[in-house]
Amino acid sequence: xxxxxxxxxxxxxxxxxxxxxxxxxxxxxxxxxxxxxxxxxxxxxxxxxxxxxxxxxxxxxxxxxxxxxxxxxxxxxxxxxxxxxxxxxxxxxxxxxxxxxxxxxxxxxxxxxxxxxxxxxxxxxxxxxxxxxxxxxxxxxxxxxxxxxxxxxxxxxxxxxxxxxxxxxxxxxxxxxxxxxxxxxxxxxxxxxxxxxxxxxxxxxxxxxxxxxxxxxxxxxxxx
Length: 224
Known about the structure:
This protein is of the alpha/beta class. The protein has one domain. The protein is 15% helix and 18% strand. The longest helix is centred in the first third of the chain and has 9 residues, at 30-38. The N and C termini lie far apart (37 Å).
């Protein structure tokens, strides 16, 4: 998220500050962006780890709900394996879904990008002290290192000076519960870890909307 705010590195920084979302600029060019990333031409400093990886995946998304459950279905044709190292031996494919009821800053703009920071595990500004933080066990940092978090769960986020991010600037645990109360239309994003990939090595969607019987939403959940 911090990288998107730096105009010298991301041409859309000014547009984001004016409230424009990622999909409005990039929805039609995600496949081309993926090619630049997996080739090491842009953004990815460890291109060897994704050599041969599919640059993008076309995914069909369906949603439904009933009185007690909400259902999502993702369908795609799995690209051939790149044949590289299996980062996650146990899982060939994993899907992550993120929902926001409009209260998460950048959630409507960037979907999953709102929770991805410069100081997560495997990212440029990850801290060697993360595993010894007093709340490391609570946040599962002790074994895995800092994972994704939202700006709203932190007291501050550094976006200019290095190190960027705010993994250690935690709000009190009691404040988290209040943040978890949701509505009926959500900002929506998803990620696919395919070919046994893990951590930041995944396909990610732009930010979309998901609505319960909302004709204006990108993905419309139908009542069963």
